[in-house]
Amino acid sequence: MSVAVRGSNGSSSRSTSPNGHQNGGHDNGHNKGPRRIKVGVIGCGYWGPQLIRNIHEMADAELVGVADTKPERLEFVRRHYPEVKLFSSHTQLLETDVEAVVVSTPIHTHHMLAKEALTAGKHVMVEKPLAASVSESVELINIAQARNLMVMVGHTFLYNPAVQELRRLVGDGELGRVYYVDAARLNLGLFQRRANVIWDLAPHDISILMYVLGMTPVAVSARGSMCVQDDVYDVAYLELLFESGVSAHVHVSWLDPAKVRRITVVGDKKMAVYNDVSLVEKIRVYDTGVESPVTNNFGEFQLSYRHGQVTIPYITWQEPLRLECEHFVECIRTGADPRTDGMQGLAVVSVLEAASDSLMHGGRRVPVEIPSLTAAAPAAAPVGVDMRTPAQIGLASAS
Ligand SMILES: NC(=O)c1ccc[n+]([C@@H]2O[C@H](COP(=O)([O-])OP(=O)(O)OC[C@H]3O[C@@H](n4cnc5c(N)ncnc54)[C@H](O)[C@@H]3O)[C@@H](O)[C@H]2O)c1
């Protein structure tokens, strides 16, 4: 139970939650509703405007300021949100009274910006991936824990109602025992100079796979091509091996004519295809399968195929990024551990680092070693294995 302490000015001050990190507490004023959490955003390039829009629209948050090093991006914010304070440097934003910041800058800057924000006493949500290495990720988690602050990572798809439904299908055993998973995330662009396609796109698939299967990968191998730039992989194929023996193949590409965001889960009872590009049929469940081989009386090998119905579960749609931003603010307020906490971010970065190692060594299988942090708060265990149902975590469950 949190203990809210009221300040002399009547506003509620921070309190400490069971997991240790400070939280905002509730305003005890009559019918005022919860106090709005003051949030700042660092980075307003391609993705930042989505975060800015969502935070600006949220009743429980107050978008106080935006920092970007590019004047034209600050001008964009000024045009759309004239009341929001603008900063050409993140340090100026961190000097304000914001309680939390969202970092939406290129990957190589995540660690530096998140570390400075935590050191300045702010809760932090970092866009995916959490950082550019395992050691950077560990340092961020340790700083957050030492200062009783929250570090959350923007694994947006874990707030996607279709992914929730896919997880339910697997968790409830509707697909049966999972044989394998195939994932494809393809597009033309957006090419980057300082991060390859694995670090850019695969965090989505790795986080989804860990969440849906409820397991972390134990080994990964990766191969890729550098087609357009001499030194940056733009097409890659990963194979992830999970504890149970399930394997998953992930194809990521910046060099494909079609936009594809598809995950196929093949079980021994049914198969499910999650197509994020589809507006109305995000998930199709195929009552399709093959019975185990039998040998007939003549000693001939026989298979029996099953072609049943295709069902399309109804999914109550909500914008995943809005759910993610609301979850961030809610966790600050209540002191709860976020679904995509620092340890989740660390697990994904551990897989990415092992995949990079594999790429450098011709695709050899590399063990995934996720550091166990001794001082870890309850959020640390078990990594990626949140087996609560969608209803328990407050998301609409598709029927
Ligand atoms: N969750 C998702 O679905 C999703 C989608 C796209 C991008 N992303 C993530 O969002 C982040 C940003 O990606 P993007 O495509 O918007 O990049 P971008 O390059 O388009 O934009 C980054 C912005 O950050 C600014 N910036 C860089 N360093 C800064 C600093 N030190 N202080 C202040 N501003 C700084 C740049 O000027 C730029 O405007 C990345 O981590 C990326 O992986 C997430």
Give a quick precis of the structure.
This protein is of the alpha/beta class and 399 residues long. 28% of the residues lie in helices and 28% in strands.
Structure description:
This protein has 399 residues and is of the alpha/beta class. The protein has a domain at 158-311: Dihydrodipicolinate Reductase, domain 2 (2-Layer Sandwich), CATH 3.30.360. The chain contains nine helices and 21 strands. It has helices spanning 48-57, 71-80, 90-94, 107-119, 134-146, 161-171, 197-213, 320-334, 342-360, and strands spanning 5-6, 12-13, 15-16, 22-23, 37-42, 61-67, 85-87, 100-103, 123-127, 151-154, 178-188, 217-225, 235-242, 247-253, 255-267, 271-275, 283-290, 294-295, 301-302, 305-311, 366-367. It has a nine-stranded mixed β-sheet. Strands 7-6-5-8-9-10 form a six-stranded parallel β-sheet, sandwiched between helices. A two-stranded antiparallel sheet has the order 1-2. Helix 4 links the parallel strand 8 and strand 9 (123-127). Helix 1 packs across helix 8 (320-334), helix 4 packs parallel to helix 5 (134-146) and helix 6 (161-171) crosses helix 7 (197-213). The two termini are 34 Å apart. Mean pLDDT is 87; it is low at 1-20, 24-31 and 375-399. It binds nicotinamide-adenine-dinucleotide. Residues 42-48, 67-70, 73, 90, 104-107, 109, 113, 127-128, 154, 156 line the site of nicotinamide-adenine-dinucleotide. The site of nicotinamide-adenine-dinucleotide (NAD) has 23 residues, from helix 4.
